[in-house]
Amino acid sequence: LQHYFIQSNLRMAVSNDVPVNKNKKYRKDKPWDTDDIDHWKVEEFKPGDMSSHLLDESSFATLFPKYREKYLQQVWPNVVSCLKEHGIHALLDLIEGSMTVKTTRKTWDPYAIIKARDMIKLLARSVPFEQAKRVLQDEMTSDVIKIGNVVRNKERFVKRRQRLVGPNGNTLKALELLTDCYIKVQGNTVAALGPYKGIKQVRNIVMDTMNNIHPIYNIKILMTKRELMKDPTLKFESWDRFLPVFKKKNVQTKKPKKQVTKKKYTPFPPPQQPSKIDLQLESGEYFLKEHEKKQKKHNEKEQAQQEKFALKKKEKELAFVAPKEDNVATESKANDNGNVDIEVLKMKLKNKKFVVPGAVTVSGPISSNELGPVENLSCKKKKKKRKVSSEKTNDVETDVTISPQVKKRKKSQLKESDPKDNSKNCLTPSLKKKKKSLVTDESLNLSPVKETKKKHKNDESAQSKQTVNGIDPISSAPKPVKKKKKMKSDVTV
């Protein structure tokens, strides 16, 4: 041991009493490592640097949203040709909604598959192809920052995301200029593309913005740093004294103070309020038994429910009440009471007693077929009855066979009818012609068996006829003249 200590002391003496750091005790000199060498420089990888092809296939796939399908379909030929230069195969699956990149035997850069993966990620996050293909460069990298889970409240999230973009995208443009990165804010992510140093700055600024630190503060710090970098004398000094320091201020919104009105001072205390027992004694509830108290509460509850039910019923019934109408007609009549036109009233009264010139007067029961269609009458009910009677006659025509005795009877009836009857004067020349045709038609078609049934029906229809223009033709017609017993009906038109 003594020998060991002696040797160590001698070594210390040889080293001129210079203390040696424990970490650098076994470090040897590196003559090739000089100050001229830039350790951060990324050397370019060229084809031919890799001696053999890749032994196994590597692949990456990523999904894309539906709204990106149309754009990717247009751009995909360019994506395939761009990746083919690096020996990587690309596939687009529109059914599944995914993009896939694979290595091939022609891949000459082993890290190219990672770059291709970043490229399809950027394309899925709405970055245009012209910007996304820059990732394949050696000095470039990308980052997709997730901001959806930072803020819970959706309104706050939207406001802070908009704060990152700024008015007309001015804040985003300023960040792009200061960091030398391309930034794309889309949905719940922020995609950044640029050098490694700039990407790190972008991530810090985005996370600070989502944590309620305005990006303008970080922009000011970046601007001051850029100015300080130009001065070589400050290269080895601390820049903390130059950088702006921002303090947090929780400015609370001031609520309007309630104006409290002071009461007048009185030396006497307020009167004591009655207790529950006092109130029960006053109402008499205190002396009730338990089941009586329960019954009383139950009755009060039922009464309250009935009142509420009645109110709700009234509200429901209001929906079915008809709105009040404006009585325009009554008002117009009230206004016109002073200005009555006497001539108009006279005409109205005359029209009520006015007889249509083509009106028909009947004496005795008469069938609609015998009368024929009357001119200048517009009664709908009569028309309907005539149609029915015509249908009936058509049915009869098919079944009835005519005998020569019927023809003789018809002719005798027409001859014996009174020629001087006043009702004959009511006929128009058109009706006279129709009457002749009717007689000939009926004589051919009707049989004595069916005729009696038909006359009974026509008697009922003649009695139930309504008045035309206010005049009943049966009542106004002259009374039928009594004839021989052989005649069953007299028809005068």
Short description:
By secondary structure, this protein is mainly alpha-helical. It has helices spanning 2-14, 69-84, 112-124, 129-132, 154-165, 170-179, 196-210, 215-229, 276-283, 290-318, 328-336, 342-353, 368-371, 380-399, 404-416, 429-445, 448-463, 473-476, and strands at residues 59-63, 88-93, 98-103, 141-146, 182-186, 189-194. The longest helix has 29 residues, at 290-318.
Question: What labels describe this entry?
Answer:
single chain; about 500 residues; mainly alpha; 18 helices; about 5% strand; disordered N terminus; disordered C terminus
Structure explained in plain terms:
The protein has 493 residues and is mainly alpha-helical. It has 18 helices and six strands. It has helices spanning 2-14, 69-84, 112-124, 129-132, 154-165, 170-179, 196-210, 215-229, 276-283, 290-318, 328-336, 342-353, 368-371, 380-399, 404-416, 429-445, 448-463, 473-476, and strands at 59-63, 88-93, 98-103, 141-146, 182-186, 189-194. The strands form two sheets. A three-stranded antiparallel β-sheet has the order 1-3-2, with helices on one face. Strands 4-6-5 form a three-stranded antiparallel β-sheet, with helices on both faces. The longest helix is centred in the middle third of the chain and has 29 residues, at 290-318.
What order do the helices and strands come in, and which of them pair?
Blueprint: H1 2-14, E1 59-63, H2 69-84, E2 88-93, E3 98-103, H3 112-124, H4 129-132, E4 141-146, H5 154-165, H6 170-179, E5 182-186, E6 189-194, H7 196-210, H8 215-229, H9 276-283, H10 290-318, H11 328-336, H12 342-353, H13 368-371, H14 380-399, H15 404-416, H16 429-445, H17 448-463, H18 473-476
Helix pairs in contact: 6-8
